[in-house]
Each structure stands twice: as structure tokens, then as C-alpha cells.
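Chapter review: from sequence to fold.
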Amino acid sequence: MKPSLIVHGGAWTIPDEAISACKAGCRRALEAGWEILRSGGQAADAVEAAIVVLEDDPVFDAGTGAHLTLDGCVELDAILMDGATLKAGAVTTLRRIKNPIRLARRVMERCDHMMLSGEGAERFAVEKGLPLCDPQDLIVPREIAAWEQCKRDSHDSMHHVHQGGTVGAVALDAGGHMVAGTSTGGTCCKRPGRVGDAPLIGCGTYVDQEAGGVSCTGWGEAIMKIVMAKAAVDKLRERPANPQDVADACVRLLASRANGTGGLILLNRGGDPAASFNTPNMAYGFVQQDGTFFVSS
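The C-alpha cell string follows.
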């Protein structure tokens, strides 16, 4: 089977000055994941590698550079799901993990539970050899400035040049194995302990390689209402030849039924990519049939 890979860096209003950086970040993520897939590597390795690149890039709202909570801290969420077994590993409200997608994979592969949060998740990370970082290492000056402005003037998304940027990836390897993952810092100035759609199976991420795989981005509270990732996979099962129609239908449902904004990326069971969004921009990219990269924002 021909491998396939699609990634995203979030659906939001991307300022003109950030568009090139978002596109460059998505391209680097594609390069990291595709190097693994084209060499015969596994989908899980490709998704992890792609998302790590995006988590390490401060232009996105995941890992380093994520939004701050009302308390001025970073709290990170992530999930990785296996389309063959339907196993998933999810982690939430992390303050000391540089790359949450790495911990999500350890939960998926080496834990009896599907989701771990906060201190318990970080204790599990140490047990499995994943180092903790200084929480300050995840904070960038842009987010400090936005947080301070919100404290002075009351919270307003207009203070945040960087209003979104959840990241995700879906990969199909040569063996027909499909994996999807998502990582986020959540919403700006969120209440401590808030968990959005991203780490919730079926909401921000879902994959069943008999149908397809999905990673979502946008207003989490709305995405959760329609369980958007699972809804998309169910539609792919019914209409496997129409991935773009499925993606568009799910975004319309997000708007009409949940009054929400956001987007999603997906692969159908054959690896055909699609993306859709109802925000001004969505940073995303995929590997085309000839092996070249398409990147858009």
C-alpha cells in the first residue's frame, strides 16, 4: 500500500506576518513524518515525529509556545490512536512535559488506562523514562505579553496575536496501518484544569483503518458536542470515495448544530487526504501522489 500523511497546525485567524512561519512548520512536520514512511517505517513513528516538530515550534499552540491559563501556566493535552486496535493514549493538563505526544504514545502502548491527567500523567512519564522539563521552558514572551494584557484589560482574544494552533497528524504506512494524533495547549486564558476536545477519543481525534482517520482543531466545546472526529470516520465508512465531501459535511455540522468554528484533516482508508475549515485560515499540508508536499494556510 502507498503510504500517506497529512498534518495541521490549527484553524484560526492567522496574521499575515505568521503565515509563512505556519507553512514552514507544517512543511518541516511533513518532512519528518514522510522520511519515516517512505523508508518503510510505521505510522505511529511518523505521526509522533511530525507532531513533535509542531510541538517544538513556538508558532503553534502546542508544546513550547502554548497559551497560558488564567494562572499564567501552560497546561498541555495530547492523544495518539491506533487504527488497527482502536487503542488510544491520552494525556491532559500537563505542565512539565515538553512533548505531550510522546507521553500519549507511552500511555497507548504501555499503560492499562486510556487517559492520564496532571501529576499522575507526569509520574507515569518518569516511570517510563520520559524526562520532566521546567514549566518555564514552555512559555514564550508572546504568550506572557498576551496574558499580562488580559490581566490588565480583562480577557479578550484580540490581545492574542496567536489565537489558535492546535496541531495534529494522520498517517497510513505501507503495511496498511493507520494512526492519528493531536496535541494542544488549549484556549488562551483558560481556567486551570480545562480540557477541550483534543485529547478526547472521538472528539478531537479518531481513527479506524477500516474507514479512515481524523484530527480536529478549533473551538473544543463545540467540537465535543458533535463528537466530530468520530462523526467524520463514520461518514468515511459510508462514503469512502468522497473524503472531501465528508470533511466539508462535518464542518457544516459543526457550524449548524454546535454554532462552532474549526476544522479537520483526514485520510480515508485508502490514504486519500482531505481538509476543511470555517475559520479564516487553517495551516495544513499533505504528501501528494508524486511524493511532493502541498502546504496551505
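Two observations follow directly from the output. The mean pLDDT is 95. DSSP finds eight helices and twelve strands in the chain.
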